[in-house]
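Question: I have long wanted to understand how a fold can be written as C-alpha cells. Here is the record:
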Amino acid sequence: AGYQFCFYAGSYPALPENILASSDYRPLKDPVSYPLKLSGGYEIMLGIAMSNSGIDMQELILGAGIAFVLTILTTIAGWGIEGARRRGKELEDLSYRDHLTGLLNKRSYTEYLEELAKKKSPYGIIYMDVNDFKTVNDVYGHETGDILLSVVGKRLANSVKDKDRSFRIGGDEFTVIIAGDQQKSFYNDMIKRIRLNVARPIGIGKIQLNIYLSVGFARYPEDGKTSEEIIKKADDAMYYDKRLTKARRLQNG
C-alpha cells in the first residue's frame, strides 16, 4: 500500500520552488488534487494518490492528518502575507497624510500638481495661512499651537467638497486644489465659506483664541502657464490679503 501527498502555494501545476512539503512512497498513479483557496488570491493544492496494491488506512489517515496540519499552517501564513500587504498599504497611505491634521501633506500636494500639469487640466489653488500663529506658539506653547492647527485642518476639510483636495503643506500654511475650470466668483464664494467655517474662535482649556486667515487664489491657465507661476500668484494674493487684514485690524483698534 502507499500514498503520496504534495503541499504547495501558487498556481497549478506546482513548480519545484513552490512546494512547501511532500511525502513520497512507492511510485503511484492517478493522483487526485484538491485546490484550497486563501484570502488575497493565494491557492494551496493538496494532492493524494493511491497505489494499485491497495490502501493502508493507517498510512492514509496519517497522511491526511499531516496534510490537514499543513493546510492550517499555510492558511495562517496566507493571512500573514495578506495582513502585511494591508499594513503596507496603510503605511503608504499615511505617507501622504499630515499626522497632525489628517489632511493631505506636501508630498501629496506636489505629486497632484505634477499630475495636473502633465494632463494640462485646468485647476485653481487657494492658499491660506493662520495670522499671528507664531505669537500663539510663543505665548501659549507649541502644544496649544498644534491643537489650533488640528482644529483648522478639520474645519477646512469640512468646508470643501469631496472632489476638491485640501492640504497642509507646512507650518500654518494650508491649500486647496480645485480641479476643473471655475470662474473667479466660484473662488470668492468658496473663500467666504472657508472663512465662515474656519475663522471662528476656539477654546483650548481656559484659553480663548480668535482665528484669522489670510487667503489668496490663482487659476491655471488664466494666471500662469506653469504650476510654479500659479503657486506664486496664489501666494502673492495671500500676502496681499494679509496686509489688508492687518491694516483693517489696526484701523479698528
Notes: DSSP finds six helices and ten strands in the chain. Confidence is low (pLDDT under 50) at residues 24-29.
